[in-house]
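note to self: the first set is below, dont mix up w the second
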Amino acid sequence: MKERRIVSGIRRLGFLLLGITAGAQAFEPLPEKPIAPATNPTTPAKVALGKALYFDPRLSVDGSVSCNSCHNVMGGGEDGRPFSMGVRGQLGGRSSPTVWNAAFLSVQFWDGRAPSLEEQAKGPMINPVEMGNPDHAAVVKRLQGIEGYKPLFKQAFNAPEITIDRVAQAIAAYERTLITPDSSLDRYLKGDKKALNESQLRGMQAFQDVGCVACHSGAAFAGPTLPEGQGFYQKFPTFPGSAYDAKYRLTEDTGRFQVTHQEADRHMFRVPTLRNVALTAPYLHNGSVSTLEEAVRVMAKVQLNKELDDGQVRDLTAFLSALTGTFPRQEMPQLPPTPGRTAFAP
């Protein structure tokens, strides 16, 4: 028994030393906060307004869908559905990506069509499946009719006027507070060598050896840090032809090609963050994979053309669970009322 403990201790020391080297080369702790653009500095008043707007279903045409409906910050930042549900019960064509740590991504949406959080915030409001408004003017008119929003806009922008750009800026300012630092991996990289167990340490090494780090690098595990608007993309599947293609409908969505119509962008997708990935099932752009273990097997095969054994899958999954961070407490905001009438009155 004593010899076993000694061997176990030596093995753990080996993994620790290996992990120190690997972490220094391939992994970065998540910053405490992102850098806000000069055109939209973060202020407490702007964040408070953005939070109210983020939770307000009156941004949708019939008052049934808010930003939080599909990107639930009371959970993993998505909605747990393969496809999100918009107005009138309509389903979108892709799984909602998490909003947690989205501020560290250089482009938004699976196909990267929005170059910033501000531009992303505008899109769903006029998407016929998501929030269903005919145009942004309809959203602004509705908000202008809610008296309680005027002082909030004045506090946030030093003027009471409501514009779609200010709506988007406020929502983006709130989203830049949705950061989850202090994961087990972060603590490990900062010097707490007990923060990862042996399986997670093996998984960290396998993450590099198998080749996952080729795409999922950087502090957000979403690729290298790039200037805003310059997304990091990868073809999916890179190695088509496996049984997974049909099982999980991997080749049906042409990805970024739908935005650019350039043949080189066919089946190209923005590399998603792996931060908190253990909490964001189902997986892939179409939400077709229900468990993290299966997602690990699928990605290894279709992206790296590698078959993993059960031990590798367990260790990689254990490592990915170490990317779950500390979530700042969220409280539902009190929304400005419309006394005696509905906001949708003609």
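second set (the one i keep forgetting abt)
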Amino acid sequence: MSQSALPALAEVIRSGFTEGRHRGSLVLLDADGAVAFALGAPEQPVYPRSTAKPFQAVATLRAGLELHGEQLALAASSHSAEPFHRAAVRRILADAGLTEAALRTPADLPLDEVEAEELLRSGGQREPILMDCSGKHAGWLAACAANGWDLDSYLDPEHPIQRLARTALEEATGERAAHTGTDGCGAPLLAVSLTGLARGYRALLLAEPGTVQRRVADAMRAHPEYVAGTRRADTWLMRAVPGALSKMGAEAVQVVALPDGRALAFKIEDGAERARGPVLAAALRRLGVEDPVLDRIAAAPLHGGGQVVGEVRAAF
């Protein structure tokens, strides 16, 4: 299905006028894993971006690295580079005898705008540890060090840690990767369907306690601030909705699973971040979730002259 044929998932309403639309695909799964509702083309491959991180953290554990609690949540994170995130990345590296110099993440500013502004005001600059994927990379590097694997090539698709990551993703989604690319952090990026992603998150939550899959899911849910940050929707949702597992990805990809097996995944085709919250809240409500946090997540006001003059809202 072409982009122009995809349905609108969100509308941009300014002064009562529909100024634009954000199109995309969405899928909701019932507790038994069957498709309950779908829009667009959720069966077509997409790059999952950072929604792949829980499976990449599974690979870190399968490589034999013993991460627990906040550190394991951080290995599956797109963190905001708040001080506690940076400290935890350094602990993972230091425990493996490594420093920040080993990170292959590109130098970046914090993902969180408040953190980025504070950093710049204090005279800080872009650094690899500030990149939101540095927790994942630190886990991979520590696993490589523990196994005696080459540290310089850990982002090569054929490196042992990346082969483990591919296997973890393909097992959970039940799909072979349709395409391999390069993510923003330099890691291999594997295309799978939104339906596969939703089923993969469902598999993480329904895995037997103590398995590596369930350990990742449990750590993320227990320490959501380490998965995202104090001002992020994934954190708000996992704190408010008991047992929820939520993870965003770049280009407006989002996956959520609930402990009874219900799950959702969507992608806004043009990657518009402003549409993520309204679509996420509407999808959760259609899935049967009701909680005041959804109003917070859905809020996407438009401003004119310093006043609120409209909003981005879900279109389904």
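remember for set 2: Residues 134-147 form the longest helix (14 residues).
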